[in-house]
Amino acid sequence: MNKKLKIFLKILLGIIIVLLLSIIVIFVVHKIKSNNEYNELKDLGYINKYSAGDYDLNIYRIGNKNSKHKLIGISGLGVHNYSIEMTFVNEQLKDDYEIIYIDRAGYGYSDDTSKTQTVEQIVSDYRTALKIVGIEGPYILMPHSIGGVYATYWESTYPDEIEGVIFIDGTPLGMNIYENEDYSVSFSDYFGVLLCKLGMQRFSIRDVSDSLPSEYTKEQQKLTDYLNIKSSMNKAPLSEIKEKNNNVNKAYQSIKSNDIQKIYIESSRGARTIEEVKEDLKWVKKRKQELGLKTITTMPSDDKITQLIEQNIEIEKKQIIPYIDLLGNTEIKLLSGDHYIFEQKPDELTRIIKDYINDLDK
Asked: What are the angstrom distances between the C-alpha of 52 and each of 111, 112, 124, 134, 300?
């Protein structure tokens, strides 16, 4: 072996040793910080873990435990801080109702799992967690986005457990309507899981999680970052992404029309006037500018906005109305805004929720 090769191998070995030591140090620091973050969230009441069989699920309860109405918050895809993002709605509901947020497997501080996240598995976990804690139904499900898939399956398969459903801009259901969308998971995604376990997410938190807008406190931003560092690249959410079309199909096939009173709050496609669209775009632009995200530079023309409204109406006719007609006893409520309407118009959203629950009591 010549002298140059020996020198190269020594340098390479040195680099490898330095990298391994750096990874070990980062991992140890990550574990120490994670333990401190866990304790901080637990002291604030966000962490309450209960067995769902092979793994533990985390439950956060807020509000009036003596209320006859139990609202079960079901988050959208990859939303690990639903209970925090719903803060402004929670504050207006908590005196009258109890709101219960159950983190799905791999979400928030629930344990991660290699189990395939089918709609049956996810709903089973929700039901198991509630039974173990002793929170008895019937429940009012309050799903956001893809959470509507699981709520649909739940209320269709176990209708005796459900008092009502509040779909917040829920994912529309139909057979194979998402089959042409790419929900594959790559090797790099699984490599990201490993990096997350090692603590590397701490160096790239803004690549996987946006900052909250200024309406939220710095404390809430900090807690959100804790949750995303813990869970943003877990195995279970990746499985949920892969299973999206299958879960939508299964939930759609499970639908049995019933008399459970439901409301579908349509926000991201809820605009019906040019003025509403312009106001929504101004809000989105302001929010993205505040967070340093790419946004529109000029307001679309009235003609383009009219086309957008027509597209929204067409999607409603082809996807949403047939879906809710199958559900039975479901009212569409338009609330023009962003997909994260609980952030943009929490007061208006809360009024709709309260009016709906008041109707249940009549």
From this structure: 10, 12, 9, 13, 49
Distance CA 338, CA 291 (A): 16
The answer to whether 242 and 119 are in contact (CB under 8 A) is: no
Residue 139: Cβ within 10 Å count: 24
Cα 338 from chain centroid?
A: 15
DSSP single-letter state for residue 339: S
SS3 state at 271: coil
Retrieve residue 302's tokens: 């009235």
- Cα-flanking dihedrals φ and ψ of residue 59, to 5°? -125, 135
Alpha helices by DSSP H, listed for the chain, are 3-43, 82-85, 87-93, 119-133, 147-157, 187-198, 205-208, 218-231, 235-242, 244-254, 274-291, 302-315, 321-327, 341-344, 346-360
Mean of all residue pLDDT scores within the chain: 91
DSSP string for 131-182: HHHT--S-EEEEEBTTHHHHHHHHHHH-GGGEEEEEEESPPP--TTTTTTS-
Token pair for residue 345? Answer: 């118009």
Q: What is the DSSP letter of 201?
A: G
Question: Does position 156 have pLDDT exceeding 90, yes or no?
Answer: yes
Q: Looking at this protein, which amino acid is placed at residue 198? A: L
Q: What is the mean pLDDT of residues 99-108?
A: 95
Task: Please state, in angstroms and rounded to a whole number, the distance separating the CA atoms of residues 262 and 329.
Answer: 6
